[in-house]
Amino acid sequence: MENRWLEDFLSVSRTGSFSRSAAERHITQPAFSRRIKSLEQWVGTTLIDRSTYPTRLTPAGERFREVAEQALLALLEARQDLRSLKDPRSSTLRVSAQHSLATEFLMGWLQSVRPQLGAAAIEVRADNLHDCMRELDQGNVDVLICYAHGALPIEIDATRFPCDSIAESMLVPVSRPDKRGLPLYSLKRRPARALPLLTYGVDSYLGRAVALTVARLKLGRVLTATYESTLTGSLRAAAIVGTGVAWLPIHFIAQDLEQGTLVHAGGARHEVKLQIRLYRNIARLGSRFAPTQGS
Question: What is the predicted pLDDT for the residue at 204?
Fold first, then answer.
């Protein structure tokens, strides 16, 4: 059983709506429904009556809500107590970042702001966007670094977590080259058969960003999802061996493009523009750290 299942359950018990709670929890409704179902399977009984709208808790759900609230409160209090035991003189900047940002980009950017950090140690936690945001919201990290797409707003309390754009990036469709150095799977020409698509999945933020571009360019009939992973490194490896076409962050594959192990599979219209943003937890940081524009 995962703590986030309890948070999901308490959210839907309050909103009475799976769709509103999914938006509140920054995941798709199908993924949210699966997590509620997983919680019910763990408990061993139905907690939510889905036959009515708004949805309501079953009698078992009403009893379990009290348990869930108490359990989460106890965990939060225990965390605060344990944190108070730490040496107050210690100085560590805790960073949460999406997987593909927690490599070359993050290391380069941290070096650029090292003068602002002084002797502070740095702790990096890499995860998917939802869990990164949860870490920030629960006070487990000082800053969140993530991608942002103009059509996919990130709903977060700006008064608690002010945001700055620190760099620009893009997702580039890439493929293994053929013997002539041309893309093995090209989006520029009309294929005789559907091209295999390596995808992040619809539950992923980058997956939703790619899906918007696929829909805008009407590529749904040209591409067929054949491989799915939430890890950019896994999609990169699959593209390099020739499994299909994948949209990957430009900073993540810069060396591959330079060496020719991957080539651009489309044109500028196929690229997905992104910002890289930094969200600060001002309750933990105050004004002692302010970001600078990256590159």
Answer: 87
**Which letter does DSSP use for residue 219 in this model?**
-
Count of H helices and E strands in the chain? 10, 11
Handedness of CA 168, 172, 177, 180 (dihedral sign): negative
Phi, psi of 228 (to 5 degrees): -135, 135
Q: What is the pLDDT of residue 115?
A: 79
Q: Which residues contact 151 (CB under 8 A, 6 or more apart)?
A: 209, 212
- pTM for the model: 0.70
Q: Domains in the chain, ordered, with CATH? A: 3-83 (1.10.10.10), 92-167+275-285 (3.40.190.10), 169-273 (3.40.190.10)
Tokens linked to 21: 């709670």
- Name 218's Cβ contacts closer than 8 Å, sequence gap at least 6: none
Identify the segments of the chain with pLDDT beneath 50.
87-90, 293-295
Could you identify the residue written with the tokens 């709670």? Answer: 21
